[in-house]
From TrEMBL:
Cited InterPro entries: DapB_C (IPR022663), DapB_N (IPR000846), DapB_N_CS (IPR022664), DHDPR_bac (IPR023940), NAD(P)-bd_dom_sf (IPR036291)
Metabolic or biological pathway, per its Swiss-Prot or TrEMBL entry: Amino-acid biosynthesis; L-lysine biosynthesis via DAP pathway; (S)-tetrahydrodipicolinate from L-aspartate: step 4/4
Annotated function: Catalyzes the conversion of 4-hydroxy-tetrahydrodipicolinate (HTPA) to tetrahydrodipicolinate.
Encoding gene (name): dapB
Source organism (scientific name): Parasphingopyxis marina
Name of this chain's protein: 4-hydroxy-tetrahydrodipicolinate reductase
SUPFAM superfamilies: Glyceraldehyde-3-phosphate dehydrogenase-like, C-terminal domain, NAD(P)-binding Rossmann-fold domains
């Protein structure tokens, strides 16, 4: 059986993945949290999954590279320097980075890209997300993934049109912007809504995660898929055939 090692094992996602591994055709190689020996975990595991914090990424990738172990990065809040680390590691090992491992969200990204491509520039795009009260990064990784898909559909990059944090008296939207709004509260596992709005009508495409189990199921599927893959950077689209 494929042995999966979990980085961030005592966190909300780590625990959800461990619980599902018990019921799946995989085995648990072990887990680490802040201060744990990720090198030993990488040696014991056939594949690593990292759902921890951006600060962990460098050590996770180094350990995976050292042992030639494929790795799934589920952590969000990643910046350009983290993506550069992932690209460098992908020269030596198989790395899959996914802000959301749920099937529904990855399909939604395709729908959003298509809708943005078909609707004209006079349709404003706003992305609203809500998560539990403990979430530290905003906008969510998924909101950014959906924003990137919308920007691609429009033939631009998210960096050029991203708009967030409106407050005050000078907040009329910029033409062509993709806006983000983040709500935090309670135990919400993850809600995302992409609103396309023009004069007189609106289209809303969205996804609601009812529990973390959908992310955990997708993570295990992706981890098993990664084993034996050539070095390179992969996405959930590769796993799901989207
Ligand atoms: N891709 C996806 O589908 C999903 C992604 N996520 C993302 O996964 C990440 C974790 O989420 P969640 O489980 O809710 O967060 P939690 O805060 O519940 O758990 C994070 C865990 O990571 C550990 N950790 C923190 N820093 C390090 C480190 N440097 N090395 C090793 N372990 C570390 C923490 O340990 P300690 O307490 O000791 O610091 C903790 O156990 C977030 O970025 C979240 O956005 C969440 C859901 C789905
Ligand atoms: O922190 C979470 O909980 C989640 N994080 C991911 C994100 O930032 O998009 C995925 C999911 O929405 C839950």
């Amino acid at each position: 059986m494929t042995a999966i090692g979990i980085i961030g094992s005592e966190g909300r996602m780590g625990r959800a993945i461990a619980a599902l591994i018990e019921e799946s055709r995989a085995a648990l190689a072990g887990g680490v949290d802040n201060g744990g020996d990720v090198g030993a975990l990488a040696t014991a595991a056939d594949v690593l999954v990292d759902f921890s914090a951006p600060a962990a990424l460098g050590d996770s990738l180094s350990a995976a590279r050292e042992t030639g172990t494929p790795i799934l990065i589920g952590t969000t809040g990643l910046r350009d320097e983290h993506h550069a680390l992932i690209d460098a590691a992908a020269a030596d090992i198989a790395v899959l980075q996914a802000a959301n491992t749920a099937l529904g969200v990855n399909l939604l990204a395709h729908l959003v890209r298509d809708a943005a491509a078909k609707l004209g520039d006079d349709w404003d795009i706003e992305i609203v997300e809500m998560h539990h009260r403990h979430k530290v990064d905003a906008p969510s990784g998924t909101a950014l993934l959906l924003g990137k898909a919308a920007a691609e559909g429009r033939g631009t990059t998210l960096g050029e049109v991203r708009e967030e944090g409106r407050a005050g008296l000078d907040c009329a939207r910029t033409v062509g912007a993709i806006g983000f709004a983040s709500l935090r509260g309670g135990s919400v596992a993850g809600d995302h809504q992409v609103v396309f709005a023009t004069e007189g009508e609106r289209i809303e495409l969205g996804h609601r995660a009812e529990s973390r189990e959908i992310f955990a199921r997708g993570a295990i599927k992706a981890a098993l898929w990664l084993v034996g893959k050539q070095p390179g950077r992969y996405s959930m689209g590769d796993v799901l055939g989207l």
